[in-house]
Amino acid sequence: MPLFSWSRAWATVAIVLVLALIGFGLHWMLTPEAPVVAQANFRVLLSDQENAIGDFESLEVTITSIRMLRGGEEGGWEVIELEESVVVDLTRLQGLNAQEIWGGIIPEGQYIQVFIYIEDAIGTLKNGETVNVVAPSRNLHISKPFVVTAGDSVVNFIYDVTVVAAGNEQSGIKYILLPQLDQSGADQEFHEVGEGKLTLWVVDTGTPVIPGQNITVVVTFQGDPMPDAQVKVNGVHVGNTSGEAGQEGRISFTVPYDEKLKVKAKIYTALGELEGQLKIE
């Protein structure tokens, strides 16, 4: 083969390589990098300690903002204005049940107080009467220090509240919303209530939920047990809730050896499909 044919061939290869490199470079320069989504390092979850909550069919509390006082020499406030007000029904958050009202990133360091600001609290009693529940000064505050550190760990701050009844039937009963210091803080056990209209509860046995242990979950809708609800545990169907007298809405199962436990319930009713879930870490 003549020498000039080899030269022409190598020249062609060189041109192809150059064009490929140029194309790769343009693609690298023009293709935007995927945004890096920072993981939340702090969450506030609301829970309710049982007092007068048994009087209510529902008790919806509307929260507009959260403020946290920093400790140490710097001091100052970390203010979180919720883009949309968060409405939680306290009747679903009894016992260890808790619901997230905010999750995001706050500066590292020590915090010594947490305030939540309440727009209103409106309850429906079991007799059908609607009442306004008073939140003194329209805010609640708890002094319970916690520390946010660098790394992947997330601080879950449980903000426990309770509703109490004051007065009597003659003078009129007034309901008041108060914070509960003992059951609040970043070191509290909790079961996280997810979205959906069904409420799931773990029957309290006085011991924590651990793998290999048998537990019983109750599925309710507006306070009433729901028999024949389909229940899944970490995606695996474990059966339907009982319809037997005294056991309505209950199902027992063995906790799997997984890092997290997610229990989901679903039932078809005249109101349509109802769902609910509970997460335990």
From TrEMBL:
InterPro entries, per the entry: DUF4382
Domain DUF4382 stretches: 40-179
Protein name according to UniProt: DUF4382 domain-containing protein
